[in-house]
Amino acid sequence: MFTGIVEELGEVTAVENLDDASRFRLRGPVVTEGARHGDSIAVNGVCLTVVDHEGDEFTADVMAETLNRSSLGVLTVGSRVNLERPMAVGERLGGHIVQGHVDGTGEIIERKPSDNWEIVKISLPEDLRRYVVEKGSITVDGISLTVVDAGPDYFTISLIPTTLALTTLGLKQPGDPVNLEVDVIAKYVERLLGSQGAGR
User: Fold this and answer.
1) pTM of the model
2) For the chain, how big is the Rg over CA atoms in Å?
3) Which one of 45, 71, 122, 180 has the fewest CB atoms closer than 10 angstroms to its CB?
4) What are the Lumazine-binding repeat spans here (predicted)?
5) Contact 184, 97 (CB under 8 A)
6) Within a 10 A sphere around the Cβ of 131, how many other Cβ atoms?
7) How far is CA 109 from CA 13, 57, 173, 176, 191, in A?
8) CA nearest neighbour of 23 among 60, 48, 57, 53
């Protein structure tokens, strides 16, 4: 379980493409401190398992399902990534409940900078639109954000200078893909209401 509060901007140092998977080596001094085999680390919002750890780098295997559903397949050596360790029990929940289970990908449509923040417009896949509401929570590349405007096939977010400086959203440009995870509570509510309707 994560909170969507990115701990550091890491870097991909190696990519090994296998038949139906990929193995990534990533650098992140903060998230590798005390890391052990089997630990979870969110990479651009995708919960990955630490396979090996040496110094300030760790390796993680990514199966085909994850590569197909997320934007991890476009990562290359030198790509910057958002990194976050799981939330410890008893810690503050600074963002919102994030599982690290990406629901799909969107694409940055446009960026509108201003003096103190920047509005970013992102496309929204049709099957996720019903879960995104104005002023609701959404995870973009592992970052917990508030939806400013929920359009028919897009949403917008407002980014403060800190988010722009410390995450991948300060680097991404129109046309770049981003990982999306909608609020899991909305999905549970939908399932429960659907079950009640079927019962009646």
Assistant:
1) 0.91
2) 17
3) 71
4) 1-96, 97-193
5) yes
6) 21
7) 28, 33, 8, 8, 31
8) 60
* Contact present, 46 and 140 (Cβ < 8 Å): no
Residue-wise pLDDT tens digits, 117-166: 999 999 999 999 999 999 999 999 999 999 999 999 999 999 999 999 99
Q: Evaluate whether 170 touches 163 at the Cβ level (below 8 Å).
A: yes
- In the block, residue with structure tokens 């509510």: 189
Whole-number Å distance between alpha carbons of 95 and 138: 10
Mean pLDDT rounded to a whole number for the chain: 92
**169 near 33, Cβ under 8 Å?**
no
Instruction: Report the C-alpha gap between 108 and 198 in whole angstroms.
Output: 38
Q: Is the pLDDT score of 103 beyond 90? A: yes
Cα gap 176→170, rounded to integer Å: 12
| Tokens at 107, concatenated | 């694409």
Report pLDDT for 195: 62
Q: Which residue has the tokens 């896949």?
A: 125
